[in-house]
Amino acid sequence: MRAYDIIFNKRNGKKLSQQEISFIVNGYNNGEIADYQMSAFLMAVYFQSLDDEETFSLTKSMAESGESLDLSFLDGPTADKHSTGGVGDGTSLLIAPILAACGVYVPMMSGRALGHTGGTLDKLESIPGFNVNLDKEEFIKVLKENKFAMIGQTKEVAPVDKKMYALRDVTATVESIPLICSSIMSKKIAEGAANILLDVKTGKAAFIQKYEESKLLAEKMVQVGKMFGRNMTAVITDMNEPLGNAAGNSLEIIQTIEVLKNKLRNDFSELSIELAAYTLLQTKISNTLEKARSLAEEQISSGKALEKFIKMIELQNGDTKVIDDYSVFGKAENIYEVKAIKNGYLKYVDTRNIGVTSCLLGAGRLKTEDKIDPVSGIIFNKKTGDKINKGDILFELHYNKADIDGILKILKKSYDIIEHKPDVQKRVLETI
Ligand code: URA
C-alpha cells in the first residue's frame, strides 16, 4: 500500500477500506507518513467526506493508535464531557470539578486551541507550573485521589489525534464532520469513560454552522460512541455569541475561579451547570434534570467544587496561589478599551471573527510551533441584548504584541449597536 494511492482515491471520491484507513493513521503515527501527506489526506477528506463506515474505521484506528484505558476498577461512575469548540467555551473547567464533587470520576482528555476557538489545555497551562502531560500512571493516580484529572492526548493514549489535531489547526481542515467526529470520539473512547456527554455547537462561531449539519455531527458521534458500548448523550447548543465574559487563556481561568468562589454568575456558569446536570442524569446520580441542576449548583455554593479545582491544580503541579492572587498569572502589557460610539442595544453579528481576534491578540496559534500568549484575549463587558450608552466599554483587548489597528478592523465587523433590543437566543437547543 502507498499513502499516495490512498490520498489519490479519496481525492477522487472513492470509498476507503478499513485497511487503507489504518495504514494511513498508523503510518502517520509512527512517522512513516509525512505531515504534508497527512495534510493532503485531511484536505481530501474535507472535500470528499467519509461515509459512516469510513468514519467508524477512522475513529477506531485513531483510538487504537495508543492504549485504551480500562477504568472499571474505580468504585464509582465515570463520565466525560467534550465540546466541539466555541468562543469563550471553557465549560469543561467548571463541569469537571462539579461532577467530581458529586462523586463522578472524570478522566478528561482535552485539546488545545483549534482554529478560532480556545483549548482547555492551553487555558490550564496559563496556570504557572500546571502539567497537562501526565503519563498513564500519573493520570490514574490523580484521578483516584481527586476524582478528576485534565490532560492532553499522551504518547500512550490517543497519540495520533495529538498530531492530526495540530495539523488540522493550521491547514484549514477543522470544519469536517468525520474529522471532528473521529478526533473527539477517538480520545473519548481511549480515555475509558463509560458515560460521554457531547456539547455540539451550532451557529456562526461553531465549526459546523448549519443546524442540520450540527445535528448530523451529534448523531454520528452518538452512533460511534454506542458502537463502542458507551452511554451517550449529545446536546446541541447555540454558538452565535461568545459564551461568558472572557475569551483567552488566563482570562477564562480567572472567570472559572470567580464562579467557583461564588462571586460571578453568567451564561458560562449557567451552561456549565446545565451540562453537568445532564451528566448527573446519565450517571444516575440524579433521577430528574431539576434535581441534577440543584445538585450541581450546590457544589458551587458550598465551595466543594472549588476545593476539587484547587486540589487538581496542586496534583498537576500548578501554582495554587493563582486562586487568591490573579497577578500570579501575569498581566498583558496593553489593555485597549473598545467603547460604544452610539446608544442602543448590543448584537453580536460575527462571533467567529471575535475568536479570530482573540487568536490574533496572541491567544491562539498561526503555525503549529507558535507559542500561545497566556494572558492575552478579550473581556466581553456587554452581551447580546444589553442596553448600551455611548462611551460604554464594550470590550477590553488584552495583548502584549499585536497589530491592534488590523484587529480593530476585524472586531468592528463582528458586532452592531442597534435601535431595538434583539432577541436573546437560548443556549440549549436540542438533546439527542
Ligand atoms: N475538539 C476536538 O477534540 N476535535 C475537534 O476536531 C474539534 C473539537
Brief overview, please?
The protein has 432 residues and is of the alpha/beta class.
Descriptive account of the structure:
The chain has 432 residues and is an alpha/beta fold. It folds into 3 domains: 3-48, Transferase, Pyrimidine Nucleoside Phosphorylase, Chain C (Transferase, Pyrimidine Nucleoside Phosphorylase, Chain A, domain 3), CATH 1.20.970.10; 79-157 and 165-323, Pyrimidine Nucleoside Phosphorylase, Chain A, domain 2 (3-Layer(aba) Sandwich); 330-418, Aldehyde Oxidoreductase, domain 3 (Alpha-Beta Complex), CATH 3.90.1170. Helices cover 45% and strands 15% of the residues. It has helices at 3-11, 18-29, 35-48, 52-63, 91-101, 120-125, 136-146, 159-170, 177-191, 211-227, 249-260, 267-282, 289-301, 304-315, 351-363, 404-412; strands at 79-83, 106-109, 148-151, 195-202, 231-238, 246-248, 334-339, 344-348, 377-380, 387-388, 393-399, 415-418, 428-431. Strands 1-4-5-13 form a 4-stranded mixed beta sheet, with helices on both faces. Helix 10 links the parallel strand 4 (195-202) and strand 5 (231-238). Helix 5 crosses helix 14 (304-315) and helix 9 (177-191) runs parallel beside helix 10 (211-227). The protein is globular, with a radius of gyration of 21 Å. The chain starts with a helix and ends with a strand. The model has no long low-confidence stretch (mean pLDDT 95). The protein binds uracil (URA). Uracil binds at residues 84-85, 111, 114, 174, 180, 183-184.
